[in-house]
Amino acid sequence: MTQHQTIRSSPRSTEPLLSVRDLRVTFQRRDERAFKAVDGVSFDVRPGQTVGLVGESGCGKSVTSLAIMGLLPKRGNTVEGEAVFDGDDLLSLSPSQMRDRRGADIAMIFQDPLSSLNPVITIGRQVTEVMERHQGLSRKEATPKAAELLDRVGIPDPKARLANYPHQLSGGMRQRALIAMALACSPRLLIADEPTTALDVTIQAQILALLKELVVDTGTALVMITHDLGVVAGLCDEVNVLYGGKIVERGGRHGLFRQPRHPYTVGLLDSIPRLDAPRGEKLNPVPGSVADNLPWDSACAFAPRCSHRVDVCTREMPRWDGDDVVGFRCFNPVGGPR
Amino acid sequence: MLRFVLRRLLQMCVVVLVLSMLLFAWLRSLPGGPVSAILGERQTPERRAALEAALGLDEPLPVQYQKFLQRVLQGEFGVSTKVLPGTDALDVFLTRLPATIELAVLALLLAVVIGIPLGYFAARRAGSAVDTTTVIFSLIGVAVPVFFTAFLLKYFFAVEWNLLPVSGRQSTGIDATRVTGLFVLDGILTREWDAAWDALKHLILPALALATIPFAVIFRITRASVLDVLDEDYVRTAEAKGLSTGVIRSRHVLRNAMLPVLTTIGLQAGGLLAGAVLTETVFSYRGVGEALATSFREKDYAVLQVLILAAAVIYVVINLLVDIAYAVIDPRIRTR
């Protein structure tokens, strides 16, 4: 598969900034069976690289990001594995060490910009509080910097906007403000969890363009979590497709889109509505839902929904076929075995 | 903000006007009525009719209401017949009000100072043994009738152990100078420390009894509200910023969680100020509640009118204050 190797976007020589190894998150609710939300996920993010985590609702992509950030509620959740960032395993840092990292070295943007902003505090205060916390600035010193940040993320009349409350901004402006808060301390890694899902389409495009511009300008590495392959195509250097808490396919974006191997990836690509399709043509969803999943221990979780299923799929777990740059997890991949 | 307050003030006037009509209709429909109260039940119809004419009770109701309203606006409610015979009814209320304010403020202070931190604490440890215990205690606080709590407190602290006075507002033999009518405050203002301390000792038991229900309600609302806010996305955002626990608690959790608590405090304050009938009666504490009980029992209509109308006005004013406080905390209301 030399084709994949030639399009690799980041040189292999660079040490990963974030290296997630065998991450497992188990939810245990009282009187219920333990649920493996994330089941052995490994991936690397190199400085300046944009890595996508793609999958439908419930595949474990958001839980992965929250586990790395240490933001999962303590009660009823177990997190195992490693997430090495800059030499430290984030999963074994103390809460106060983690607090020093969050917002400074690693920042996060969330899905719904309205509910993610505190309704009773001004935008300015919500931006300055990060700088006060991590850069030791006073509120007075941080305020002009906050205005600069709002300006940089494309909010017009930033000085006046500092005094506004979230409900006085439009959806797109709110997401820009959240991005400004995330970038306030120039983090080396930014995790964006479905940052455009709650926005309408034209605004989505603007926000994606802004994110792209910012990561290029600042050299920030970006982990992009999305269910939208369109977002991935425009933004990511490397794409990980998640299913049932495991990575089922990985590749550079060009390779993945040109020659998808896992039937689930193919299904996701086929389900994107095409503008040039004849009128009245039916949409092409992946049949079934995540509720049909088989347990990974003894089968391929995707098997019940898979059009490429063979006998072995329901008897054995497929192994990872590939390395940490390209690969897939399938007994009967599209296009035949490698 | 000014427009917001003015609009609320206007609404307030309408509410009080409607309440005055209801009050008027209710008092006129009570069995017995002022004539029986003044003359007694055994009287000739002629004498009753003569008194009715003298009091204007033979006129049509709208005319009576109009005259009633005129008198009310001039502050004339008539003369007390039973509570403080011969005194102007409004003066009866005004002399009783400081006692009730003192009691209500202390009770509410206790309820807030204990209820809010405890509610927050319980929410942070939701599901734990501490949480369950405090919730059960607060349930008991709501469920046990106030007069029972009051009797228990009185029996143990005043009678059995003799730690605090049994009843009243001030011991006999204390020569205190009156400034505001709030005994504790008077004692502090005039530096008569013994008088202030004595008045405070009289306040403790009734205030404790009175505080149980507001405490339980404030505790439960705080707990539920903090639990809601802890689940909010913006608290997660604050965590993602790496802010210190203290900042997250005070700036992001408590401020938002206080909104429903504020409404509750307002409602409770209204109830307390309108008169703690049971508690004041148990402790023979001569405040508005005790006057209300007496005037109702003895059919002192003039005083009854004043007290009910005053209760309505107090409720409405406190509601206005809560609305203003709401607008101060929540910008979404201010700019609407």
TrEMBL record, chain A:
Pfam families: ABC_tran, oligo_HPY
InterPro entries for this protein: AAA+_ATPase, ABC_Ni/Peptide_Import, ABC_transporter-like_ATP-bd, ABC_transporter-like_CS, Oligopep_ABC_C, P-loop_NTPase
Residue ranges occupied by any ABC transporter domain in the UniProt entry: 20-269
Membrane topology term: Peripheral membrane protein
UniProt keyword Transport present: yes
Entry keyword set: ATP-binding, Cell membrane, Membrane, Nucleotide-binding, Transport
GO molecular function: ATP binding
Location of the protein in the cell: Cell membrane
SUPFAM superfamilies tied to this protein: P-loop containing nucleoside triphosphate hydrolases
PANTHER family assigned: DIPEPTIDE TRANSPORT ATP-BINDING PROTEIN DPPD, OLIGOPEPTIDE TRANSPORT ATP-BINDING PROTEIN APPD
Similarity remark: Belongs to the ABC transporter superfamily.
NCBIfam families referenced in this protein's UniProt entry, alphabetically: oligo_HPY
Protein name: ABC transporter ATP-binding protein
Automatic annotation (TrEMBL), chain B:
Membrane topology designation: Multi-pass membrane protein
Transmembrane segment boundaries: 9-27, 103-123, 135-157, 203-221, 259-283, 303-329
Major localization listed first in the record, in broad terms: membrane
UniProt-recorded name of the protein: ABC transporter permease
CDD domains: TM_PBP2
Highest taxon above the source species: Bacteria
Span of domain ABC transmembrane type-1: 97-326
Subcellular location: Cell membrane
InterPro entries: BPD_transp_1_N (IPR045621), MetI-like (IPR000515), MetI-like_sf (IPR035906)
Keywords: Cell membrane, Membrane, Transmembrane, Transmembrane helix, Transport
Family: Belongs to the binding-protein-dependent transport system permease family.
